[in-house]
């Protein structure tokens, strides 16, 4: 499970090392001040990040990072194909036009084409990375066919060209109530003719795993119909995506050879076996080995992980993150892991829904070295894995905070939006003083305590079965509520995590309500409903709390003389009680598998948008030129070789442009055909 974030601009002082390498990407020259900004287009800003501590690693550790990075990139095209069945064909054609077009490259239409191409690169396909809406070209079909394709000798089938410009497959993931969510989603986890009923019926009889240890059924396969019969096309060596997976395996074998310890090597062995066999039982064995391998400076996330992109919550998107331990921050944040049982014992839950023993919740702040698949270019800021509930309960989980990514977000410069949407000077003061630390602590509490807390009643199925299309947003909201409840608890000050728990909590509550009811609306088009799970959960938490608080004037909706709307919290202690009440209810819903209650909460508070407020927010935001979404190019790990092609050293360089990295990836990690 992961948290995503939005950033604006930032600039930090640091040093870059530039060197000659076997990689032929152009690199930014060494400079005394690190330039994080790459470029901005449409609603997106592309940035760079550094890898603090990389140069302090031993050569063996650097090799481990490098091999894991190459393994991650080897599977990059899997994510493109998962997102939409035509994405790889479309990318091939668009890149061919970009490279070979001989017409007017300075025309307005060609500039529209370049922006469209960059948006497709950023989203790993033709659907927006956050809203799931199909990205609409600003140029015409006639220009694309008669000018761009013709004058670049590029090809794309007529049927696919139509899709770019028509209303087919408009939603990558459609979780709206009242729809056939599978049939109306363009995600390539299911053949185009598969329905909700097909999925439900298939998994009634599918292999569930040993008693008490259910596998994540459907996690690594595509459900199709052949000769009238439903079957899974498994993602494995020799199966679907086999060519890319074989290359992943090659690099994982190299990584196993330089593992820091036996536990790491064993985990990598099991991951390799899983990719070879596609066995979900082996995946569970790997997850146990991985989550209990906690020694060493290097760690990784690799596999078909998060199920947010599946409207039914079965199939995992390909994702990799390679990470280096941030020693200082990990020591500071370990205190939450050490006190996880206290938080569980003191949570405002029904006692029958609490865990008697919270097992092995480990929390680390790490610095990202590389990301691929669902984690790139748009990256999470925190991750808590594994997702399988029984493994979490019996063997624990790993929670990581992506320190260098959060650092980039938190230094994203400028207080303009804060001053525009905050109710008063005191709200601004609290945010400027405690906003960054409250953000870090909320992420930590969400991941370490939130996702680890609570238990499902005996005999109740997994949330993807009971809560269905509401499972993901309910889980994210539940974890958010755990964090919100404890952000105004004196325990945080007692543990030395803040110097003033009250003001920390006030800043956190102000920011959450302000974002959940107003500022996050800048990310969606006027008139649209909210669909992305994290955005939905922030609104249903905020809107429910506002409705409850309005009765006792806990949260005021204020329209000032300038006709601008603000939300002002008048009683933070009461709001904490409201968050606790909602937390108790969301845990009950999960524990009991109460689908109707989940539907009522999400549909009643999380999806529909106050159109008057939305129009106002969009208008007030027009003064700000910074894009609402940000993502990253990856640093380039460049090898220095001796005359025998042995690695002497690995150094970090930076790509010069977003386009350069995308083209380099397409050329060097293109292991799949256009049809899979």
What does it look like?
With 676 residues, this protein is an alpha+beta fold. It has a domain at 2-52 and 326-632. It is built from 25 helices and 15 strands. It has helices at residues 59-74, 76-83, 87-100, 108-123, 141-149, 158-165, 196-205, 242-257, 262-277, 280-291, 327-338, 340-345, 389-395, 403-410, 416-421, 425-450, 463-466, 471-487, 490-494, 501-517, 533-551, 572-592, 595-607, 611-621, 658-668; strands at residues 2-4, 37-41, 44-47, 221-226, 229-234, 298-304, 318-325, 361-373, 380-385, 397-402, 555-559, 565-569, 629-632, 636-641, 647-653. The strands form five sheets. It has a six-stranded mixed sheet. Strands 2-3-13 form a three-stranded mixed sheet, with helices on one face. A two-stranded antiparallel sheet has the order 4-5. The chain is globular, with a radius of gyration of 24 Å. The relative contact order is 0.15. The model is unreliable at 5-32 (pLDDT under 50).
Short description:
This protein has 676 residues and is α+β, with helices and mostly antiparallel strands. Helix content is 46%, strand content 13%.
Q: Sheet with the most strands? A: 6 strands, mixed
Secondary structure class reads alpha+beta
Strand order of the biggest β-sheet: 1-9-10-8-7-6
Counted beta strands: 15
Tell me the number of helical segments per DSSP (H or I, 4 or more residues long).
Answer: 25
State the helical fraction.
Answer: 40-55%
Low-confidence stretches: 5-32
The dominant shape is globular
């Amino acid at each position: 499970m992961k948290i995503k974030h939005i950033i604006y601009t930032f600039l930090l002082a640091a040093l870059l090392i530039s060197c000659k390498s076997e990689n032929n990407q152009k690199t930014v020259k060494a400079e005394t001040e690190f330039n994080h900004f790459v470029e901005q287009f449409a609603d997106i800003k592309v940035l760079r990040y550094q890898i603090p501590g990389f140069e302090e690693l031993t050569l063996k550790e650097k090799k481990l990072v490098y091999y894991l990075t190459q393994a991650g990139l080897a599977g990059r095209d899997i994510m493109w194909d998962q997102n939409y069945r035509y994405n790889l064909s479309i990318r091939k054609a668009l890149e061919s036009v970009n490279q070979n077009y001989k017409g007017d490259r300075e025309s307005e239409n060609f500039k529209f084409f370049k922006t469209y191409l960059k948006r497709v690169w950023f989203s790993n396909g033709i659907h927006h990375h956050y809203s799931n809406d199909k990205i609409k070209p600003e140029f015409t079909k006639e220009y694309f066919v008669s000018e761009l394709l013709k004058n670049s000798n590029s090809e794309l089938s007529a049927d696919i060209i139509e899709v770019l410009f028509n209303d087919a497959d408009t939603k990558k993931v459609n979780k709206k109530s009242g729809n056939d969510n599978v049939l109306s989603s363009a995600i390539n986890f299911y053949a185009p003719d598969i329905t909700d009923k097909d999925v439900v019926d298939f998994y009634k009889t599918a292999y569930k795993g040993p008693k008490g240890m259910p596998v994540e059924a459907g996690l690594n396969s595509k459900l199709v119909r052949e000769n009238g019969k439903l079957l899974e096309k498994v993602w494995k060596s020799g199966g679907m995506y086999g060519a890319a997976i074989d290359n992943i395996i090659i690099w994982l074998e190299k990584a196993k050879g330089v593992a820091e310890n036996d536990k790491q090597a064993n985990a990598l062995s099991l991951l390799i076996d899983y990719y070879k066999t596609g066995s979900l039982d082996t995946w569970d064995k790997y997850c146990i080995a991985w989550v209990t391998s906690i020694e060493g400076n290097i760690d990784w996330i690799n596999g078909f992980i998060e199920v947010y992109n599946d409207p039914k919550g079965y199939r995992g998107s390909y994702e990799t993150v390679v990470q280096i331990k941030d020693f200082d921050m990990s020591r500071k944040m370990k205190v939450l892991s050490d006190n996880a049982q206290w938080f569980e014992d003191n949570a405002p839950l029904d006692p029958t829904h609490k865990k008697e023993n919270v097992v092995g919740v480990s929390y680390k702040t790490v610095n990202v070295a590389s990301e691929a698949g669902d984690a790139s270019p748009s990256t999470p800021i925190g991750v808590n894995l594994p997702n399988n509930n029984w493994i979490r309960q019996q063997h624990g989980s790993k929670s990581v905070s992506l320190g260098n990514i959060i650092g980039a977000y938190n230094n994203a410069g400028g207080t303009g939006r804060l001053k525009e949407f905050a109710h008063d000077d005191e709200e601004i003061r609290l945010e400027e003083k405690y906003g960054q630390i409250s953000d870090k602590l909320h992420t930590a509490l969400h991941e370490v305590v939130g996702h680890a807390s609570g238990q499902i009643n005996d005999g109740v199925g997994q949330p993807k079965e009971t809560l269905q299309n509401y499972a993901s947003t309910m889980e994210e909201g539940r974890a958010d509520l755990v964090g919100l409840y404890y952000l105004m608890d004196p325990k945080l000050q007692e543990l030395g995590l803040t110097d003033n728990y009250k003001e920390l909590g006030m800043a956190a509550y102000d920011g959450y309500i302000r974002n959940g009811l107003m500022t996050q609306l800048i990310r969606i088009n006027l008139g649209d409903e909210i669909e992305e799970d994290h955005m939905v959960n922030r609104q249903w938490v905020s809107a429910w709390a506002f409705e409850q608080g309005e009765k006792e004037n806990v949260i005021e909706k204020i329209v000032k003389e300038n006709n601008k709307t603000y939300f002002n919290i008048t009683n933070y202690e009461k709001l904490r009680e409201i968050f606790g009440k909602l937390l108790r209810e969301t845990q009950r819903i999960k524990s009991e598998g109460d689908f109707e209650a989940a539907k009522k909460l999400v549909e009643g508070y999380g999806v529909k948008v106050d159109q008057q407020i939305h129009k106002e927010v969009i208008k007030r935001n027009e003064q700000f030129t910074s894009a609402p979404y940000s993502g990253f190019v990856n640093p380039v790990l460049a090898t220095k070789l001796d005359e025998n092609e042995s690695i002497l050293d690995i150094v970090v360089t930076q790509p010069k442009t977003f386009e350069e990295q995308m083209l380099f990836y397409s050329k060097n990690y293109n292991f799949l055909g256009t049809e899979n």
